[in-house]
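Dissemination and training. As part of the outreach component of the grant, students in the summer workshop were shown how a complex can be specified as a set of sequence lines and then modelled as a single object. The example used during the hands-on session is reproduced here so that future cohorts can follow it. Participants entered these lines:
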Amino acid sequence: MPPDTEPVLLRTKGLTRRFGGLLAVSDLDFEIRPREILGLIGPNGAGKSTTFNLISGFYKPSAGELHVFGENCTGRSSLAISRLGLVRTFQHGSLMRSMTVADNILLGTIHGVKGGARRRERVAQTAAMLGLSPYLSEEAGNLPHGLQRLVSIGIAFAARPKLLCLDEPLTGLNQTEVASTLTVLERIRDEFACSVLLVEHNMKAVMRVCDRIVVLHHGQHLATGTPAEIRADRRVIEAYLGHRHEH
Amino acid sequence: MDDLKLPYWLGGLVLALAGTALVRDAYIASVVNLIAIGALTAVSLRFVMLMGELNFATAAFVGIGAYTAGATLTILGWPFPLALLAGGIGAGLVSIVFGYVTLRTKGPYFLLIGFAFTEAVRILYSKSATLGGTSGMIGIFPPVALDGWMPTFIVAVSALLILGLYALERSDFGKILTAIRDNENVARTVGLDILLIKIACFATASFAAGIAGSLHAFANNVISPGDFSFLVAAFALAYVKVGGEDSIVGPLVGTVLLVVLGSYALGLGGGEHIFYGAAIMLAVLLLPRGVTGLAGGKRPQAGGGH
Amino acid sequence: MQTAIQLTLTSLQIGAVYILFSLGLTLIFGVMRIVNFAHGHLFAVSALVVAAAVPWLASSGLPVLPAYLLAALAGIAAAMALGLLMYLAGFRFFQRDMVGSFILSIGLVLLLDGMLLKLFGGAVRPVPEIFPGTISILGAAITIQRFALCIAAILITAMLYVALTRTKLGKALRAFSIDHEAAMLQGIPYNRMALAGFMIASGLAALAGALIAPVTIVSPVIGADYLIKGFIAVIVGGLGSVPGAILGGLFVAAIETFGSFYFDPSSATVAIFFLVIAVLLVRPKGLLGHG
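and obtained this result:
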């Protein structure tokens, strides 16, 4: 657990987003601390995607505040927020299928690293950490689904963010792949001092890897706590209608 | 930067230039000029296709380049090298403004606004008395020293710019463009300013198109608004499509093929449009990868090796 | 005030043709997601056939009105046959491929330009007056021919609107326009929709050509100017949107008419262009678009 004196990486206050008559997210307060893996869960329609898009600048909030790395980022563009060090992936197809794995990961290095040699060094490092080194010259679109997911994480992580936001990265992965991806996330947290925000449906994985979990329901904050606390929380259990922890 | 196979390119260039130096016949000289300028325009068009957009304003920028070169030479009295360069810079500057506004749109909107821009600019030339109105501008002569060497000069300048665009394509900047074409959202999330990059790509291509226009002006000595209708872009697109859009060689092959065959077709009695039209349709229907696609087989990987 | 009414009337009458054009273009884009530059040639073929047939029929002894109606039928049939050929031999293979279909249409434009020139020659053909005389509406004068053109265009547009909102085919076409995947998941047969959309659009262009022949100078290149204005109308209105096409058509016609009167025709065209850019700045997909 990080010491309490370190400033939080991200904080929302009263974050709200309306779509016409629909209140997708309402009055949401939560924070992401340094060196933690935070899970964002909730039943379908809970507002997870909207929250994700709000904090990464892809949606502007209807009300409330967003603070990222100490700066008030309410209403700022996705470009500005990504340049501060918050990098996100997308739920579907978060990679360039027509390019090689190496070039995919390279894209993440371009903004932060100057010079061809140093960029390629980071690509090699990132690939090594994700187990993608044997596939660098492969066209990403030809790879099996599990490896493609890793490539998406690779692109985002190559930008060496301070906060890595992953949108359902485990969908479609088998148990072995899930396990190795979770190990990668833990390494990212421990060796690179990068926090991870994980939106996921795979409860077993979430319980295993997250340091804390935020639960949303009907666009509102339902509960925050450690996996043990959330597992025991009645309101969470009810919200999921007795949802079991296997997937 | 990935291996550009520079020795091959330079070797080919030397051969081409040597070839042009042997040209004595005025007609063949004009065909060579047409090929060089057409190839440059086609490569410029293809450069914007790298980022996934069909730039139908290419014709407008060729025209802006031609008129800028002509005007700076005949009206402002600038020396030849400056006038030539001015064509490219003028086109580039206008393209930055145009791109800043229109690159926020995509696909069919960007295409059609480029088309409308081409026609609007043409009307502006016709209405301007200083630029010669509908009859156009005359007296755009290159220096006497280049007399007889025009084809060589034009091929050299075109080749230089084509090589430059090729180098950019193979560089990391080129990879960003491919990424934008493939999945713009992902490129957006890793700190890249997409609009700025698109404008940079567009301006670079427009600079090249502007130089093509300058070269056209000096090669023909006379320009008029009718020279720069959307057909310029249509032909450039034909060169790219027939030759193959997957590599830089495609537009070159396509230009040579269509210009040479077109010159024969002209001799067949004014059926030039029918010829070009049929060629484009057949190429699109039967050769989706163009002529070079037949030879190349699998699409070359955008990344190359390391 | 008088001038304003006259100008408005002229705008409506010019706009009528632009609307028929832009409706076709937006319909094709909505259903097939393609841009067809050769659309103008369907219009031209129809107009050319009418312009060639009416004098010939009239000189064979037929009174002008039946001659015109017969010629119009022939023109529309010819144009729609060409449209069918375009679809079967080409566009049907390029659905949803905007670049490929566009390039194909460019090839078609060049081919048809050359062929129409060879078939009909470059000379312009005037069509004899079908409805002679002028009438006065709210104090502004309009020839009966142009008035008839206006009424016809309004009727056709209204019928199309009703067809698109009330009939099963119309609703299917609109479903495709809004969301391809969803429409396909609903089991709506895509190829039949594409053919229907393309043929309706061709029919609109053909009708426009037959209607315009009596009131304008018909030459093989007549399609080009209307095509540009038609596309501008569609960009402004939004690709795929029928109300957008109508709005865009009226917008372009208004600027052209008022601009030509207060300044001159070419300035009006330039003005149209800059206004379109302004629209795209604020709404990159046109006023009502969902492409």
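Residues 298-306 of chain B have pLDDT under 50 and may be disordered. Students were then asked to discuss how this feature might be tested experimentally.
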